[in-house]
Amino acid sequence: MAVLFEKTKLLTDKQFHYCPGCNHGIIHRLVAEVIDEMNLNGKVIGVAPVGCSVFAYDYFNCDMYEAAHGRAPAVATGIKRSVGKDTLVFTYQGDGDLASIGTAEIVHAAHRGEKITTIFVNNAIYGMTGGQMAPTTLIGQKATTCPAGRSEEWSGLPIKMCEMLAAVPSSYYIERVAVNNTANIAKAKKAIAKAFRLQMEGKGFTMIEVLSTCPTNWGLSPVEALDWLEKNMIPYYPLGVYKDKEAE
Around Cβ 157, how many Cβ atoms within 10 Å? Predict the structure, then answer.
């Protein structure tokens, strides 16, 4: 009998702790599938941060490190320089981790051209700690720390990490994707695969930003959250490639 679908070896059997409708499970699956299809089992090390994905080491069936809040790129830098080019090293970070306390870490990892890959999950809010405003929260979007909606006057405009890191001279490949429908999921997997391939070819810093939902803290159903992402996040955070030195 032909096998139409099977569980990737790069995910453990542990049940996800994520809220219903959260996109972390989809993104975990894509990362694991790519590693599996690249035959890198046993040749990959991941770095989990502080945030909703803090327990990523329970789900990825590979060597994992736990980093202090925002410091995953620094930890990954040390790992990559120790293990060498034949091992894939990736960080898996949320926007509260990467775009806030970890801003300096990610900018300077890109600035140094570190040969690591960052999977950056942007759901525009602090998910783990109760739904506070994040650097990525949209203007008018409500959070526990801005119940009337984010104000440009008091909080500035939301930060755009792809645009920022694309401007760093030593960054190599930067792309923003989403996982809100089947077509975008396929594109997201392709982007992750390219970032991993470029790293294994010895190229510089790569980052894939994945727009994601947070139904619990957004106060929406999973279906409503996907619709909100489509109508609000993608117009402000456009999908596509922001830097690709391979194509230059």
Answer: 11
